[in-house]
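User: Predict the structure for this protein chain, please.
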Amino acid sequence: MIDAQQIKNLGQEFGIDTIRIAKAQPLLDAAARIKQQRNAGLYLPNEDWHRRNIDEFCDVRSVLPGAKSIIAACQCYLTDERIHNGASGNPYGLIARYTWRNHYSDLRKRLRKIALVLEKRHGAECMVYSNSGIAEKPIAQQCGIGYYGKHSIIINPTFGSWIVLGEIVNTLEIEPDAPVDAGCRDCTICIEACPTNAIIKPYVIDRRLCIQALTNWYGVLPHEIASVWGNRLYGCTICQDICPANRNVAAVRPRTDIGYVGPSISLLEILQIDEAQYRGKYANNQITANWINFKALQRNAIIALGNIRDPKTLPLLEKLTKYHDPVIAQSAGWAVDNF
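Assistant: Here is the predicted structure, written as structure tokens:
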């Protein structure tokens, strides 16, 4: 059996915030929970949950049949950068904090360094993940990276929910860590603060109401959601912004510039460039991943402009009310009426 502390020391050497070890085994409770929520219709129609094999997703042996353990990691992404809201005539839309940079790619690079050491020293087979392919949050909960908040985001005792997750699925026997003895207890601040009431009960999100999920869904937003959308272009972190577990997390200088986008983007730019230009300018970031719907982002920009109410943007919105795409046209109509 490999000494887990050796691996955790490697994590420190390669600049990873936290390393914990999980056993490679089926996550039966997680699979049951996902299926229950899918059967209840809580996912948007464009989401992979409708097509994904949940049992395989919740068992890392489906991606590496000889897997015996999982090296789980987290990386804090809370930085001290200021948000730029643009200026009159050129308002900006907010980007969710976790995607100001590609922290997933950065964490994968660091984990690959550990995997390379394990392959050379111990002949291990390793597969590295971050934000794809396996049930990251249940793994993180199982081994004590953190606990589930009532907003269904993993909360780390040191870094709060300002973390991205990553894993090395491998064929080594490593002593697993236990879950952390912590939780939200009677706190319901995130449930009360959600502007669309998407947290329908503790640990259960109706993603049909969740702004984070809706930013990548293409369709006409109901008035009650559009009216509380604010100036968001991609993502939503209200439930994290108000979480008591995040109050004392120290912001740090950025540790990577991979896929840099920043806290906000010009809304007019999003409406005036084409998809190829967009994907080229913001390459290597999650907001240009192949599953991101560029038209949804343009719809988001229109809704944001309708909430900002900058009179200098009104002529463009009025022009878009006659656009050939009904989603764009109707969204622009809502925005104009909201002035």
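DSSP finds 14 helices and twelve strands in the chain.
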